[in-house]
Amino acid sequence: MSGWLGIVLLSAVVGAALLLSVNARKLLWSPVLAAVVLGMAGYAWQGRPDLPAARAKPIAAERGAAKALIKMRSDMDQNFGQAKSWLNLADGFAREGNYGAAAGIIQGGIRQHPQNADLWSALGLVLMLAADGEMTPPAQLAFDKARKLAPQLPAPDYFEGLAFLFQRKPIEALKMWNKVLDRATPNAKWRAPLESQYLGLQQMLLQSAASSAKQDHVIEK
Questions:
Q1: Mean pLDDT for all residues in the chain
Q2: What are the b/e assignments for 60-85, b being 16+ CB within 10 Å?
Q3: The domain that contains 31 carries what CATH number?
């Protein structure tokens, strides 16, 4: 979990150009912009075209990005009071990278409030963070439980879309995020950041496709 590069991307367009020029097999992170997750995830699907596919490990070492993900999940919570004290404590540990302690606290909350979707959603994210961004079976089970308890809760679909990005499946990520945006209320705190990520990913795909088409044209000549 070492050797990762933290970079502030000034825009999705700049990010796309940067992705096309980076040679090292590293991930790009931006803890500053609202579209931090998109910036860090872009290279997970872009990668180097001359190398065989390899599982990306995008999360745990960059605390700034992990904090951004935790905030996004918190903004997506339904905020039913009974879970808040558990989540506040667990999030503190998770922000410091202590995902084991965070998971233990959340599981304690779930034992007392097994029907609380926010707790199940938080558990799913912590398990993703602990697995370097991979949607492991336990993380999937936690998100599925949250989705069953609260079908309109955006976090499970949002993080599943993020997992698609880490698997280099940007189209599937866009589809998942579009579902989330379709049911967003106008005043949802997470709506604007997700819209930025969604539009930024679209821009990255367009930039990548245009670059590939240009390279193909040069080769044909």
A1: 74
A2: bbbbebbbbbbbbbbbbbbeeeebee
A3: 1.25.40.10
How far apart are alpha carbons 135 and 150 in whole angstroms? 20
In this structure, of 2-11, 100-109, 154-163, 177-186, the range with the lowest mean pLDDT score is 2-11
- 136 Cβ contact list (under 8 Å, min separation 6): 127, 128
How many domains does the chain divide into? 1
For tokens 């990010």, name the residue.
Answer: 15
Q: Is the pTM value of this prediction over 0.85?
A: no
* Domain hosting residue 206, numbered range: 5-220
Residue linked to tokens 């993080």:
159
Which three-class secondary structure state does DSSP give residue 56?
Answer: coil
Query: Is 217 in contact with 186 (CB distance < 8 Å)?
Result: no
Neighbours of 7 (CB within 10 A): 18
- Matching residue, tokens 């990255």: 204
What are the structure tokens assigned to 81, written together? 């009071």
Q: Are 120 and 110 in contact (CB under 8 A)?
A: yes
Q: Three-state SS string across 93-108, please?
A: HHHCCCHHHHHHHHHH
